[in-house]
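Sample entry (114 residues):
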Amino acid sequence: MISQTYVSRREASIGFVRNRNIVRHTKRNLGSISQIVIVSMLTLVFGLIYVIEGTKATSFDYKISEVESEITEMTARRDDLAVEKARLTSVATAKNSTVAANMENASVTGYATE
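Predicted structure, serialized as tokens:
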């Protein structure tokens, strides 16, 4: 009887050892120029975010001031309308009163001269 032994390809080839990688990785470091570029880009991005958020706050301030001025104008208009309503109400009340109905119409009788 002939015995056959099975050998994996890994064990048969040269340089392969079980449970070891055959590729060696070398540690790569960033150069000083690359680090400066990365830091400057991060600074630029954060600066842009800061400016954009500040601009949004300013635009909200402008909107608030516009609304406040509109409220002031409408309050003044309301007060004017309240005065006009009171004037018209008093004129209508005076026309419908019995005292006004008994009054005579005014006429010019003459002018005073010295």
